[in-house]
Specification:
- The chain is α+β, with helices and mostly antiparallel strands.
- It has one domain: Fumarate reductase/succinate dehydrogenase flavoprotein-like, C-terminal domain (Methane Monooxygenase Hydroxylase, Chain G, domain 1, Up-down Bundle).
- Helix content is 39%, strand content 17%.
- It is built from three helices and four strands, in the order βααβαββ.
- It has helices spanning 11-28, 42-66, 84-87; strands spanning 8-9, 75-76, 89-96, 99-106.
- The protein has a two-stranded parallel sheet.
- α1 (11-28) runs antiparallel to α2 (42-66).
- The protein is elongated and about 55 Å long.
Amino acid sequence: MSASFGVFRDGAAMEKGVDDLKDLKARCSSILVGNTRRVFNYALVHALELEGMLDIAEAVALGALKREESRGSHSRRDFRDRNDERFLVHTMAYLRDGRTEIEYKPVTLGKFPVKERTY
């Protein structure tokens, strides 16, 4: 995640990162938990946590890859400008039939106008 999805990103590195995550998820599906105890089975807990972390990592990765703009801590070298027309939205990730799907939900604007932060 650090190598492909750090603050400064580009599409090619993120695509490689998504492929790496898919490989890890495939490997994770065949993990053998040798401990069969029903109480305090930390091996099982760690395996389940790893599966959850990989699902979350894939959601973050796909959301970042599809967001073709720079905004806040998401700074793409291949899309340097902010794009409110396309991406003033919430990124929603859903796990459906074992696949992560990305959708968008409109942002409800408050009393303050939307503007780019400059420091």
